[in-house]
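Regression test case RT-17, inverse folding.

Input:
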């Protein structure tokens, strides 16, 4: 008798209050703990932003040093965990490999199983921030058949990750500071985005009082999909497809507008931004700068720019308020830095990690938290009687 409604995709459902990230989608505003993303991108570092998201304030010099030191102490993986990688096929996608490895951390650190034990939550936080870059680098090494490198804790987090990914035991590896800086910036821009699909997944899994590793492992899998983090790989594949078809951008845009099955302008549109995504603005400039610096002349960048111009002046996209999102230009940068397309979404996961951790911790500490348990509107059969198999 009552009025029932539901909200598929949670377009208009608030699941929680949160003090971490503010977005005004119409104005194109993004702030972490009140700080505009533009200021953090210009002045901060990924580790500092991680601290800010997790603990709520920018660290003092001493706090940052202490935090960095703690993370450096935990970059090594248990030798048995390394053997985990042997079980996967060589051409395995690195996202499920990463998710499985993060899930496996619960078995190596069983002190993590109680989500209400503060010192252990702190330890799990540090372990994740320290070990996920190592796990990600090993997922890469596995895919190219090269030996794993131990972390070098004299290096910063991003430098260490680059060395473990691209370095070889027999050769010294010099980290290019431009590359490290570009990656650090991209990690800052991905670090949090309030109640997106993967973060809501982390919260939902965590709401059953599952531990931090389990919740983040689920978040990594939610990020995998092409409508979420997987869009960064999908954009590159789309650009390569356009190039292979002769570079006709207008023709591709027509296919999108005609809603051909499976054809979307990847890297465009957003549930919350109905304006230019502020992260995409910064990334577009960075793509230009880094490609110039590295002397890379990537025709795909020209195709991307033409695609953006064409879409932004087309009624279909204007009426629907579809603008480039964070994933539109990142793939071009990752490609210039030497990462294979399959690996792009792992880089998104590395960036998003502190945001997931911050949300899980906020959720666990919030007295209003209850287990997430949505309702449904049942549309199946009314009651009917069981028929013997001979009568069906
Ligand atoms: N290309 C073509 N049409 C689109 C696109 C697109 N990328 N995005 C939305 N539309 C159309 C959609 O067809 C619909 O049109 P109509 O009203 O005629 O049916 C209208 O715009 C509204 O779209 P929606 O699917 O209801 O919007 P949503 O809020 O459910 O989806 C989205 C948001 C991001 C999933 C979607 O825009 C999309 O699929 N974009 C491409 C994938 C992508 O780039 N994802 C990354 C998102 S940002 C970072 C992240 O989360 O990882």
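Golden output:
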């Amino acid at each position: 008798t009552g009025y029932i409604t539901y909200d598929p995709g949670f377009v208009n459902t608030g699941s929680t209050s949160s003090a971490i990230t503010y977005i005004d989608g119409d104005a194109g505003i993004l702030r972490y703990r009140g700080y505009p993303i533009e200021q953090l991108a210009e002045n901060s570092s990924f580790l500092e932003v991680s601290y800010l998201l997790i603990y709520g304030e920018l660290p003092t010099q001493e706090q940052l040093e202490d935090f960095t030191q703690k993370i450096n102490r935990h970059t090594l993986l248990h030798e048995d965990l390394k053997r985990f990688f042997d079980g996967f096929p060589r051409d395995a996608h690195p996202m499920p490999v990463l998710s499985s490895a993060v899930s496996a951390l619960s078995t190596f650190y069983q002190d993590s199983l109680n989500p209400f034990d503060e010192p252990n939550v702190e330890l799990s936080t540090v372990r994740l921030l320290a070990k996920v870059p190592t796990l990600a680098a090993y997922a890469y090494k596995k895919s190219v058949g090269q030996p794993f490198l131990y972390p070098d804790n004299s290096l910063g987090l991003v430098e260490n990750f680059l060395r473990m990914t691209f370095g070889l035991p027999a050769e010294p590896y010099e980290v290019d500071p431009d590359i490290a800086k570009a990656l650090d910036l991209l990690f800052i821009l991905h670090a949090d985005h309030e109640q997106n699909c993967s973060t809501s997944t982390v919260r939902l899994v965590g709401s059953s009082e599952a531990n931090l590793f389990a919740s983040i492992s689920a978040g990594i899998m939610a990020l995998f999909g092409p409508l979420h983090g997987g869009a960064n790989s999908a954009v590159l594949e789309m650009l390569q497809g356009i190039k292979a078809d002769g570079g006709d951008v207008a023709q591709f845009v027509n296919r999108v507008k005609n809603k051909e099955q499976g054809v979307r302008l990847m890297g465009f549109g957003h549930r919350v931004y109905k304006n230019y995504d502020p992260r995409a603005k910064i990334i577009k400039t960075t793509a230009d700068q880094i490609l110039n610096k590295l002397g890379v002349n990537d025709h795909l960048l020209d195709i991307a720019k033409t695609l953006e111009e064409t879409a932004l002046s087309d009624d279909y996209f204007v009426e629907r308020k579809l603008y480039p999102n964070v994933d539109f230009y990142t793939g071009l940068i990752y490609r210039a830095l030497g990462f294979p397309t399959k690996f792009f979404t792992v880089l998104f996961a590395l960036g998003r990690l502190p945001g997931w951790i911050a949300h899980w911790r906020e959720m666990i500490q919030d007295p209003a938290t209850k287990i997430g348990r949505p309702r449904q509107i049942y549309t199946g059969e009314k009651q009917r009687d069981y028929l013997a198999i001979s009568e069906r």
